[in-house]
Known about the structure:
The structure holds three protein chains of three kinds. Chain A is an alpha+beta fold. In chain A, 24% of the residues lie in helices and 35% in strands. Chain A folds into two domains: 230 residues, P-loop containing nucleotide triphosphate hydrolases (Rossmann fold); 113 residues, CATH 2.40.50.140. In chain B, α8 packs across α10, α9 runs antiparallel to α10 and α12 runs antiparallel to α13. Classes of the chains: A alpha+beta, B mainly alpha, C mainly alpha.
Amino acid sequence: MAFLELTHITKRFGAVTAVDDFNLQAARGEFVSFLGPSGCGKTTTLRMVAGFEKPTAGQIKINEVDVTFAAPNQRNIGMVFQSYALFPNMTVAGNIGFGLKIAGTPRTDIKQRVDEMLALIHLPKFGDRYPYQLSGGQQQRIALARALAIKPQLLLLDEPLSALDAKIRLGLRSEIRRIQQELGITAIYVTHDQEEALSLSDRIVVMNMGKVEQVGTPFEIYNFPQTQFVASFVGMLNQLQCTVVDAAQGVLSYQNQQLATGAPLEFPDGAPVRVFLRPEELHFGNGHGNNELNCKIETVSFLGATVRVELNLGDTTLMMDVQNERQLELPQAGQTQVVSFPPHACWVVPES
Amino acid sequence: MAQIAQQETQSPALAGFARGRFSWAWVGVTPFFIFAIAFMILPAFSLVTGSFQDRQGNFTLANILGLSQPFILNAYWLSIRISLVTAICGGLFGFLLAYAVTIGGLPKFARNSLMTFSGVASNFAGVPLAFAFIATLGRVGFLTALFKTLFGLDIYSTGFNLYSFGGLSLTYMYFQFPLMVLIISPALEGLKHEWREAAENLGANSWQYWRYIALPVLLPSLLGTMILLFGNSFGAFATAYALTGGSLNLVTIVIGAQIRGDVLNNPGLGYALALGMVVVMAVSIAGYSWMQRKTERWLK
Amino acid sequence: MRKAGFWAWLWIILGAIYFLLPLIGTFMFSLRARRDTLSFAAYSSAFSDPQFIESFGFSALMAGLTIIVSLVLIVPTAYWVQLRLPRLRPVIELVTLLPFVIPAIVLVFGLIRIYSRPPLALTGNAFTTNILLIAGYTVLSMPYMYRAVDTGLRAIDIRTLTEAAQSLGAGWPTIVIHVIFPNIRTALLSGAFLTFAIVIGELVLANFLARPAFAPYLALLIQNRAYEPAALTIVSFALTWVCIGLIQILGRGRTDQDRAFTGPT
């Protein structure tokens, strides 16, 4: 039995369906991200797990207890908000210890736990400060400590890093993962930032317009997207319009060239299809066995670790990512180059 | 500052600023300051000096000491009492009203109506307000007559009297409630709903949320505004005068009588009264500002 | 938003009763001018009183002049403080707080003390006393007027607008007429309506400077008549409602803190 079970969760606001038949089974200690654009229903689902919204249909079970309609203060869930939501009238220690105070824990035990939490988030001397004296990153760590102090059975994070600077975001991101793994606590993380979701999660739930598009590990989601939305939302995607030439051999034709896909296709000969390619799977030069295309270089953007090249194929544009190397000779705009990719890099879907 | 200097050197007429001295801006604000000095600071100052002068113009502390006469002390005590009562009751009920339309979840039109009405009611004070209460609760007022015909009850026989301390307090509420509503509503709306959710998350119920978080956060605003209400009531003249015709000896009424004629047999005493009033108002405004700053610091 | 509970409805209903009863009472009272029937006789009687027309006209005129004087004093000041003299801001804000510290009764006391004796005798004749009255009204409305203009200027980031205009070659008159005033028109109108409401209802200055304004007229009327004051009270309330209503309409989108206005009591 899974630790957290969401079954057929649906939420309607009047005529609008915010969440449509959401299903998830999460194991204890698993880090699951809800990833999707604004308005896709990820925050609404999270709030239903927290108890701030009641589902229109469906069931939520935590550790085999049905909590679908339980009050938020009965669920023993810790939540971290995008805006930190630290209580401004209390010190850091007061904030962290608040849940324990409500539960009636003796004062000495509260103090001990608060010190433990402060050590966990690497802010040991901050107990007497007030939230307004702290930076955003510090406040969010305190918020995390506050949520964890009550030893919740589930940790919910609602876009906790969106309000922070990019640099702080990176550091805090790994902090959150480290703490989650150290404590072995089940976590649900809502974000619209795919890099965050990919780097942190054990599994990702990709959502769009209230529906679940795909559930899988980061590797699965990125390399084997099951819907066009997932493919285009996560990472960049190139598209080529081709026609099937030989389905059994897996050969397609693109403009006047033939492309091998390395595996039999389920489409009839002559059917129009679309081929998706990731930018990092394109390379300059010929590789034996690879498909080759002649392209004209439009623009070259040096991004640091990556060099992003925009290629013109006549009727389409391809984006290509090349790893930076010091002795690399950067391609020039206007050059014509041969670009190749291996057959298995092709992901073929029917032309809809 | 360098930016300003640079900007001004681009305009020939203001090139003088680069030399660091002359600026048209100072000319621009001068009329304001002249006006403020002529019609606010000088009059206030003259009252201050007047309270330290005797009839011949010599320096004396007699006027200040004269404030301790029973008649004057009673006036201050009466003013303080009515200001305290209307500040506390006005503050409490005003808070409840503001709560009802913000967090309390009443429909939008209730909030908008209350806000507009509060803006109107707080400006309605003075003669019209006094008359409205006379026409309603006076000896031949609408409600008074209604009670007589419907319930056979003469409210004046129960000891109620509009032209008394109680009646005046009731009338003052008409602008104290709205003032509280207008000032405390933004503070109530400033209570982030995430605080409530975070508190619920951590196991708190509604009462615990209010006790540990919402009320402590609101307290400076509440207290500060009640102090403001106190000052507002203390300095009120028109409503009291129109309602009681000067029979209630509030400090403002006594000052008014003194302006008309030398009722205190000592003009300096009148000035001292005015000085005392300014001190009370200044303390009140300072208290309110201090509380506001405290709130802002927390809610940065 | 959570649904409203019993208590919320209770407070608002109690509040409504308290606020509406005096108005209803006054209105019913005003309809009883003719014995045994309800009529608007009190209203026509009140309006046809020449002294009403005179006093209301006088107050309206004073209000208009006060608005002009206020604007002339405050707008440049607020502008210059925003643009060039930010260090003066605390000083100015302190000055605009002074009218709260000096209530009307104290103000008029001081004004009379200084300006009733030579060489500054302004209380000698009607014209100069009116000037004193206007000055007093300007003082009373100053905090609200300043706040309205200041908020308006801040909302439109007057500094950047001025710099943009200058970089496009505009001179000062152009900037004032075409950049500043149009953008703060709403704030100016709000301040003007509030000043109007304050001046029309103001008693203390008018009374002690012995000027024929509306509020003293109403106070006198109360002692002599019964129904006409009721009618005028209702009219007064309606007028205040119109002023504040217009401010609300103009100020849609601002926070309520800016609308926390109250007049002299």
